[in-house]
Recover the amino acids of this structure.
């Protein structure tokens, strides 16, 4: 299946996704450790990284969501209490944030980042599995292959300049047809399992602790048979942003 890019499997199973080592612009503080799985024309990337040591960043050059999958990572933004991230926890780093990043032993994380010339929100915003869920829109009847689900979300970060949203979402089970994905979306599953169908009939199965990225326009279906919860990042429009 090539319409979705698997970034991490919690059970350590091999990935079919190809990664390349590259920086996200010339000032990328994670440039030496990035492994990029997808980079789009809308100035968004998704992938994985590993770090040991300490980094000081005077002004974070883009927006980035990270979710730790192994080890412990400490993020310290100026004027804020340190944020310690262990496995299956995450945070959003706002553009322009002054930041120190520390990993006393090797830590692995997955990420989704977007360029933004005029960021509107700085600081560190944690992602929480025990989110303050509120009812959110279900799916239109014409794309469903069964009962409509009950969906909830807690959107904790929005940067209007990049049309970048991040938070936590959950849903009751549902089955949806294969259709073009309407947004760029990063997902890290916290609970449940999902079968993602491709137009050729192949199915990609992912469960709690796994992470993937689905580009805007990629044809993909969804089938879940139990409650699913996930951290998400979505980018609603293709931004015409150039990076050095």
């Amino acid at each position: 299946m090539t319409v979705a890019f698997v970034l991490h499997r919690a059970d350590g199973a091999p990935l079919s996704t190809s990664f390349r080592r590259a920086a996200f612009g010339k000032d990328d503080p994670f440039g030496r450790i990035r492994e990029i799985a997808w980079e789009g024309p809308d100035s968004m990337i998704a992938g994985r990284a590993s770090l040991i040591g300490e980094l000081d960043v005077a002004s974070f050059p883009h927006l980035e969501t990270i979710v730790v999958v192994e080890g412990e990572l400490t993020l310290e933004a100026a004027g804020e209490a340190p944020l310690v991230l262990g496995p299956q926890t995450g945070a959003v780093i706002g553009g322009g944030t002054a930041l120190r990043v520390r990993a006393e032993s090797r830590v692995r994380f997955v990420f989704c980042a977007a360029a933004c010339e005029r960021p509107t929100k700085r600081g560190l915003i944690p992602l929480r599995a025990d989110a303050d869920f509120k009812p959110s829109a279900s799916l239109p009847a014409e794309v469903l292959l069964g009962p409509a689900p009950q969906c909830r979300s807690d959107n904790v970060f929005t940067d209007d300049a990049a049309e970048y949203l991040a938070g936590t979402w959950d849903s009751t089970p549902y089955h949806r047809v294969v259709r073009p994905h309407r947004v760029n979306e990063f997902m890290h599953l916290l609970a449940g399992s999902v079968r993602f169908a491709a137009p050729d009939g192949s199915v990609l199965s992912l469960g709690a602790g796994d992470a993937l990225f689905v580009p805007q326009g990629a044809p993909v279906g969804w089938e879940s048979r139990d409650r699913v919860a996930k951290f998400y990042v979505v980018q609603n429009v293709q931004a015409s942003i150039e990076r050095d």
In short: The CA atoms of residues 181 and 217 lie 5 Å apart. The mean pLDDT is 94. The chain has no helices and 20 strands.
